[in-house]
Amino acid sequence: MLNVFSRPKSAVAAVPTVAATAGETSSDAILVNRIAAGDKLAMQALFARHRTPIYRWLLRFVSNETLAEDLLSEVFLDVWRQADRFEGRSSVSTWLMSIARFKALSARRRRTEAELDEKIETTVADPANDPEAALQEKNRGELLRQALIRLSPEHREIIDLVYYHEKSVDECAHILGIPAATVKTRMFYARKKLAELVKDA
Q1: Domain check: are 135 and 199 in the same one?
Q2: What is the DSSP letter of 177?
Q3: Whole-angstrom Cα distance, residue 173 to residue 183?
């Protein structure tokens, strides 16, 4: 668990605590507002809700579990310190991924020997499948993983955002800091190249 909850806050307001469930994704902005007022339970709720996707996003950048965990802590420490700066121009998850991407890129620049790890999570077979179907699913997942590895970092990143994190064109543009038109172009060529690689495999 992060240590950010014990950090002193300047101007902590008394905000009523409201229980948040995992299904209340629309309440993320409310949680951020409560965090800005120093609500530690809101911080814990936001962390619990987003820690896994943000961790996976970081891990694909830095290819090191320990470093990804450290960066995850830094991301949410920034949220704790800067929640009052969130303006709602994007979703909270997009805001978090933007912070995470910046930290991951900074970490990669610091690690001169490190390159983007080419590992992409293998598709997990449905346990309800029979053994033959499960094997076919595993093989398809391995083919896709190998194809993704061979994409350029820019194309792999856009595929990751759109398919693994279900981000829109505008959200991708915000996270990557590029125009929406560039996102569309990059997505077009990424899908075309991925299809070619899977076909060749």
Answers
A1: yes
A2: T
A3: 6
Residue 52 falls inside a structural domain: yes
Q: Alpha-carbon distance 81 to 38, whole Å?
A: 9
**Distance in angstroms (rounded) separating the CA atoms of residues 84 and 103:** 20
- The pLDDT value recorded for residue 51 is 94
Structural domain boundaries enclosing 28: 1-114
Residue linked to tokens 């009052």:
84
Q: Which residues contact 134 (CB under 8 A, 6 or more apart)?
A: 125, 126, 127
Q: Helices 131-149 and 180-200 meet at what angle, rounded to 10?
A: 120
Sites in the chain below the pLDDT cut of 70? 1-26, 109-141, 201
**Alpha-carbon gap, residue 135 to 144, rounded angstroms:** 14
The answer to whether residues 100 and 180 belong to one domain is no
